[in-house]
Amino acid sequence: MNISEWWPLVDAETRGWLIEHNGEPLPPQVIAHIMAVTGGTTDSEWWAGKSADGPQLSDEAVDWIEAVANDEEPAAG
After folding, report:
1. Bridging pattern class, strands 47-51 and 54-57
2. Interval 26-66: pLDDT, tens
3. What does each C-alpha distance from 32 to 10, 14, 36, 67, 70 come to in angstroms?
4. Dihedral-angle region of residue 71 (phi above 0 means left; psi in -120 to 50 means alpha; beta otherwise)
5. By the 8 A CB rule, do 26 and 15 touch?
6. How far is 23 from 58, CA to CA, in rounded Å?
């Protein structure tokens, strides 16, 4: 499931965290919320996986979230 599909399904708190901490490693509760609405699957284009600092979204997902945060039309995803 790609970000444009799961974004409206996660709760406002999770979306708020993702906007406020865009590009940072994801804490366990944010990952849990995303996995709960995606059925445990994510689109590899949007999910970068683990870095040395922890699980992260891809650069494309970070850009997508930034566009949403700026009330811009995000790239298709």
Report:
1. antiparallel
2. 999 998 999 899 888 777 667 766 677 778 888 889 999 99
3. 10, 10, 6, 23, 25
4. left
5. no
6. 8
Q: Write down the pTM of the prediction.
A: 0.85
Query: What local confidence, expressed as pLDDT, does residue 50 receive?
Result: 67
Tokens of 69: 């945060």
Judged against a pLDDT cut of 70, whether residue 7 lies above it is answered with: yes
What backbone phi and psi angles, to 5 degrees, belong to 8? Answer: -70, -10
Alpha-carbon distance 73 to 55, whole Å?
A: 26
Q: Which amino acid type is present at position 4?
A: S
Region label for 23, one of left (φ > 0), alpha (ψ between -120 and 50) or beta (otherwise): left
